Amino acid sequence: MARIESGVSDTITSDATDTFSFRREMLATLPSLRAFAFSLARRHDRADDLIQETVMKAWGKQESFQPGTNLRAWLFTILRNEFYSQMRRKGREMPDPDGVFAANLATHPEQYGKLDMADFKEALDQLPDDQREAIVLIGASGFSYEEAAEIADVAVGTIKSRVNRARAKLQEMLTITGENEYGPDNTSAPLVNKSFPGR
Prior knowledge:
Residues 180-199 are annotated as: Disordered. The protein is mostly helical. 70% of the residues lie in helices and 0% in strands. It folds into 2 domains: 1-94, RNA polymerase sigma factor, region 2, helix turn helix motif (Rna Polymerase Sigma Factor, Chain: A, Orthogonal Bundle), CATH 1.10.1740.10; 95-185, Orthogonal Bundle (Arc Repressor Mutant, subunit A), CATH 1.10.10.10. The protein has 9 helices and no strands. It is globular, with a radius of gyration of 22 Å.
């Protein structure tokens, strides 16, 4: 009898530990998950709704998640599926013909970075949805091509192609010719790069 009770106790402890670990990992993923949600929805309120739905669905399906696999990719997949399910239900995407939503994107407060980021976000918003999704998954969210392909439910070659086309299009729209296009201008660069005694 004591052996049975011990086994039950171990199972309860293990379940509680798994639940705590699942919750902790899910909370740690929320910032990058929210950035991905915003890149899809392009509105903060819709992104927040997506996050809420994703968390609720993930929590309800946590028993189907296999410990040791990539929880982050699993959550991104749930969020992406929820987004496109909502789009199918609505029959269309939220229109933004005047660029109102795109113009309200938050930017980094640094002087040069703010201008560069505004230009970049404007260009990113002009990419086709599939290319924007691919480059956000690879470039901003840090997924491998294989993970991004699994999240988007396409072949790895398709993801690579979308990312390459997105990069080429961004480079064209931003007229980037090299690595030195971003950062301090010619006037401020010497000040930023100046060597001080003892350095």
